[in-house]
Amino acid sequence: MQYIFRFKDSISIILLYSLLVKSDEIANFVKPTTLPKYFAVDVDGTFFVHDPTTFKKNIDAFKLLKEKNITPFFCTGTDRPSNKNLLGDSFFNETGYDGTPGIYANGALVYGNNGTLVKMEKFSEAFLEKFKDHMTNNGLNSRTIYTTEDKLFVIEKIADDVLNYLKLIKYIEPTQITFDELKTKNVVTIVFNSDNFQMEGATENTDYTITYPNKGVAQITPPGCNKKSALKALLDHLKSNAHECAYIGDGVNDIPGFELCDLSFAVGNAKDEVKQKAKWVLDLNYDQGAFEKVVKLLVEDQQ
Prior knowledge:
Elements: E1 2-8, E2 11-17, E3 24-25, E4 38-41, H1 52-67, E5 71-75, H2 80-87, H3 89-95, E6 102-104, E7 109-111, E8 117-120, H4 125-137, E9 144-147, E10 152-154, H5 160-168, E11 175-176, H6 179-182, E12 189-193, E13 209-214, E14 217-221, H7 227-237, E15 245-249, H8 255-260, E16 263-266, H9 272-275, E17 280-281, H10 290-299
Parallel strand pairs: 3-17, 4-5, 4-15, 5-6, 10-11, 15-16, 16-17
Antiparallel strand pairs: 1-2, 6-7, 7-8, 9-10, 9-12, 12-14, 13-14
């Protein structure tokens, strides 16, 4: 249920309407006859948990998928080095997973087994020029981070509060370079402060794709680049398809993945618009064991 408030001539009109939601509650979950071969896992707000006890359970669940011949892999908006920094070496050592196969930077980077680069979408030099001019005119260069396949960059000294925030969320520290140097790099995604990004001479979905992962934070990738297109590229590379892949996530950037995969799960802390696109909705938040619960529902009683 949702309420819409509209004010006209000092009169408040409340309209109540029902949303058509295709999602089912996890209490009604029926295990598929054939288990998926792959499991795409969002990280922030889904898999990673600050509480070490809960996170250890998620790690064990990740390992359990592998034991049951289901290949879990990350499908995240984060760059690969920052994702590794967040999870820590112990996770990768314990699970034997090196981050590949995997999807990073909201689908701009797709890796197959053993680190094979399957797909990389990057911004053109012309777009970078236009974007840099826009950010310069708006005084936002110190709050703008450019991501390549292996590093983060800024073209002005990064603002202290931005740097502190990056440290808080365990991102790697950006390196300051000149814009001419930046143009020689493979810039796959750009993160900056905005709630409603608009740039003269550039159009959303034609020149860039945009998501807002947090309040006041925008992330753009090249046009047509999202988790759905990345998943399709990876599954094609693995000689698989969406019928053989499950997906779990919490954010708006996970919706394209939900649309592709037959079996999809939204954690309990996901926004309503995200839950409406998932096949199943968890009754637990990400930090309450949602990932572990999904894994056990899928593989319990499996030999």
